[in-house]
């Protein structure tokens, strides 16, 4: 019996900028339907990893596979096809500022999926409702929303396209803890309903504990620990302990001092 390949495979990824080595043999598999969180300090290469996965950066070495197929060096047409599998919630939600909330959600459905405006609006209203925004929000502009409301629109927009894979970039950064929890619960709910595979980068441990099936720690260009979220407190790795407890003293600080 052959096992299904992982949905996402990052294999021995290397990336440097000039002399600065950012990714130095990063390995990570994400199984279909799984939610994996990558945590790591500022500048550890989290965003660079995500950009490699989205094809915005090309790794210097290693491979990225989706459903068992390499996506390094593929044609633009093939890349467009692959990108249809991805949904993304950007750090600042990155809504289209000149469009209403409703049109932010319908845009990808009409343009990307060729739906009629009517069909797209029906879906958009239902997704907005799912994230707790009633009809009164539909015709507001993004500038009229709070940070948490913007994130919710961003989430509605990402899940409306029913992507197979959703990438979350710091989904709770800049939100108060209550709104952070609401977003975390919505991420869990929306992705479970879709059966989507999700990869999230964050340094918010509270968020990781809610949304992750497995947590991976990125440090010095490699995944130094990966395991189920309930094992993160007993990893036995002093770098993981220091990070999750937010301690200033420990092996990570020592390395910073050497720089
Ligand atoms: N296009 C680029 N050119 C040169 N250096 C880059 C580029 N993109 C990222 N870097 C460097 O790569 C390193 C990792 O950056 P990255 O943005 O992945 O960090 P991060 O883990 O996402 O950090 P943060 O938590 O602060 O967002 C940093 O030292 C950064 O300066
Ligand atoms: Mg980043």
Compact overview of the structure:
37% of the residues lie in helices and 24% in strands.
Any overview of this molecule?
The chain has 259 residues and is an alpha/beta fold. It has a domain at 95-162. The chain contains 9 helices and 10 strands. The strands form 2 sheets. A 6-stranded mixed beta sheet has the order 6-7-8-3-9-10, with helices on both faces. A 4-stranded antiparallel beta sheet has the order 2-1-4-5, covered by helices on one side. Helix 6 (177-194) runs parallel beside helix 7. The protein is globular and about 55 Å long. It starts with 7 loop residues before the first strand and ends with a helix. The model has no long low-confidence stretch (mean pLDDT 90). Adenosine-5'-triphosphate (ATP) binds next to helix 1. Adenosine-5'-triphosphate binds next to helix 1.
Keywords:
259 residues, single chain, six-stranded mixed sheet, 24% strand, alpha/beta, 9 helices, globular, binds magnesium ion, binds adenosine-5'-triphosphate, four-stranded antiparallel sheet
């Amino acid at each position: 019996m052959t096992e299904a390949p992982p949905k996402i495979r990052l294999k021995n990824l290397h990336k440097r900028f000039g002399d600065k080595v950012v990714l130095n043999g990063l390995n990570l598999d994400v199984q279909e339907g799984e939610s994996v969180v990558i945590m790591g300090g500022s500048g550890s290469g989290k965003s660079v990893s995500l950009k490699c996965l989205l094809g915005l950066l090309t790794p210097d070495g290693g491979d990225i596979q989706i459903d068992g197929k390499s996506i390094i060096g593929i044609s633009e047409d093939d890349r467009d096809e692959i990108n249809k599998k991805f949904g993304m919630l950007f750090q600042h939600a990155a809504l289209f500022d000149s469009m209403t909330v409703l049109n932010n959600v319908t845009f990808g459905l009409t343009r990307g999926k060729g739906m009629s405006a009517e069909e797209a609006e029906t879906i958009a209203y239902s997704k907005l409702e799912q994230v707790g925004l009633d009809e009164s929000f539909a015709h507001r502009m993004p500038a009229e929303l709070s940070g948490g409301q913007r994130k919710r629109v961003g989430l509605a927009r990402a899940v409306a396209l029913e992507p197979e894979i959703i990438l979350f970039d710091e989904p709770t950064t800049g939100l108060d803890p209550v709104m952070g929890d609401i977003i975390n619960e919505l991420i869990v709910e929306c992705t479970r309903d879709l059966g989507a595979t999700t990869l999230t980068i964050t340094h918010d441990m509270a968020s990781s504990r809610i949304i992750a099936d497995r947590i991976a720690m990125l440090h010095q260009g490699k995944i130094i620990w990966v395991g189920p979220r309930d094992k993160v407190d007993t990893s036995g790795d002093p770098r993981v302990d220091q990070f999750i407890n937010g301690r200033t003293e420990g092996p990570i600080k020592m390395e910073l001092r050497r720089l």
